[in-house]
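Appendix B, record 7
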Amino acid sequence: MLLNLCLNLTYISTVTSVPKITPPADGKVHHFSVREIAGLFRHFEFSDHAVSNCLLKQIDGKRLCDMGSKMDDEELKRQLKIDTTTEPKFYALKYFVTASIVEINNNR
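Structure tokens (predicted):
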């Protein structure tokens, strides 16, 4: 019981310690670190579960763009743990992922 309480407190403090990150003006997130992507998730007000998932799975900008290029929207939402209540904000995030994928493809 005490171990679960300690783990929950660690989880809460880790997720809440991630500052919100304002989306970049150029729309590109492929160079973002894991912590910056987690901060972007906080900006879009995704659940603590989604932020924690991002941190645990080490989803940085490159990985997020890779996932976005290989998965349809429903699978991407499932993998990122984004629930349907924040679906409009998911599409805002998807805009930045798509802009980054275009940038990556143009630089090849």
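Remarks on this record: The two ends are 53 Å apart (CA to CA). DSSP finds six helices and no strands in the chain.
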